[in-house]
Amino acid sequence: MVKELFRLTDMIRQKSQAMQAELVRLRRDIHRHAEVGWTEFRTAALIAARLKELGYEVKMGEAAVKKADMLGVPSPAELTAHMERAVKQGADPALVKAMEGGLTGLVAELDSGKPGPLIALRFDIDANDINEANTSEHLPRREGFASVNPGAAHACGHDGHVAMGLGVASLLAEMKSELKGRIRLIFEPGEEGSRGARAMVGAGAVDGVDHILGVHIGFQATKTGQLICSTGKFLATTKLDVTYTGKPAHAGAAPQEGKNALLAAASASLNLHAIARHGQGATRITVGMLVAGEGRNVIPAHAVFKMETRGETSEIDEFMAGEARRIIEGSALTYGVDYHIEMVGGTKSGESSPATRDVLKKVAIEMGAFNDIRDYIGFGATEDFSHLMTVVQENGGLGTYFMLGANLSAGHHNDKFDFDESVLSTGVELIVKTVVTLQAE
């Protein structure tokens, strides 16, 4: 038994290391063709084509994403433009067509044919809504793989996550005869803005899952060789777009005839920040954008602001969001304007499972590839994976979210972000060995 386990783990290491060049190539191709939430048509088509080649059963479109639960979806015209761009950049037109409407999530399953647990692995695929740095010091620009798509850049490492996901898929497919149970790969769109998990859960992405693993390159593990085995204190969030509609009027001759949407929005923005903090945990509230008015001498009839609440637990976030809605309505009544609230993002809070963490840590120690292994860290921010993990736990399963350390050129969501690509094969080895260990228990 010991001899057989050694053979298997040694084989996983060798094959993971052997695919490093291909992982870098994949990462750089995805980085060059960055796509933001619900527009990841080229990225998802590339993933789907490869998974089908490997023999996975692949679910796309409404089989992977519940349309009614999608949040913050671009307009039909924007989606069409992104679909056309994806095809021009080499995506399979039939696969792109299957994702019409922004249904860019994928769920793929590999069945070993033997009894065992269902293990899910989540990899997020979207880029950030920013333009990438245009300086010679920035390696992606210098090496020719900086994003060619305006307003989209992989400034959070999701391109690396996709590459690792495909590497894991390839190795697991090759090892199918050695496996037990089933493997489910979840490639999530729209993680930025907390938009993808809810719609994928609605389509059954985590139904029946016994263990779920999520990974992030960097974040709080900012040096190659570091590993954080589990994460907690994920902040639940609710993201809202608010529109006020009033009545225009001449600001000098007849201001009494107007209904001032700008003042309603300004009043709401200030009062939102006066919501009482919660005694049972951390809270956040931010109005990040406010646009209003038509001209200097016109009572402004239109105003839009974008905001979010966050809470250390889902219940605290629900409190914050409820108070926010009350204040938004109150400002509308005060200024006599109409209002509309659209929820454009949201996710649950979460805590990793100690039992899954312990398995991952044991594997990491045996690998000998890490010089700084930590059990746990509080996230202090929002990650859509927490929604998937919490649903799995509510249904009796376990999960953990780990951070794979990498040297970074800049912080996440910075236009100069880049990471040490040598961690890609290490990540594949760690994930595959953890899967095999979980199946053996």
Could you characterize the architecture of this molecule?
It is a single chain. Helix content is 37%, strand content 20%. It is of the alpha/beta class and 441 residues long. The protein is globular and about 85 Å long. The protein starts with a helix and ends with a helix.
Task: Bin the strand percentage.
Answer: 15-25%
Backbone shape: globular
Strand order of the largest sheet: 1-2-4-3-5-14-6-12
DSSP E strands, number: 14
**Could you state the order of secondary-structure elements as H and E?**
HHHEHHEEHHEHEEEEHEEHEHEEHEH
| Structure classification | alpha/beta
Question: What distance separates the N and C termini?
Answer: 14 Å
Q: What is the overall number of helices? A: 13
Describe the biggest sheet?
A: 8 strands, mixed
The amount of helix comes to 25-40%
Q: Mean pLDDT across all residues, rounded?
A: 96
Low-confidence blocks of residues:
none
Radius of gyration: 23 Å
Describe the structure concisely for a colleague.
By secondary structure, this protein is α/β, with parallel strands linked by helices. It has helices spanning 2-18, 20-32, 41-53, 76-88, 93-97, 139-142, 158-174, 196-202, 261-272, 314-335, 354-367, 385-394, 423-440; strands at 57-59, 106-111, 118-124, 182-188, 211-217, 226-228, 231-232, 236-245, 283-292, 302-311, 338-347, 372-374, 377-378, 398-404.
List keywords for this structure.
single chain, 14 strands, 37% helix
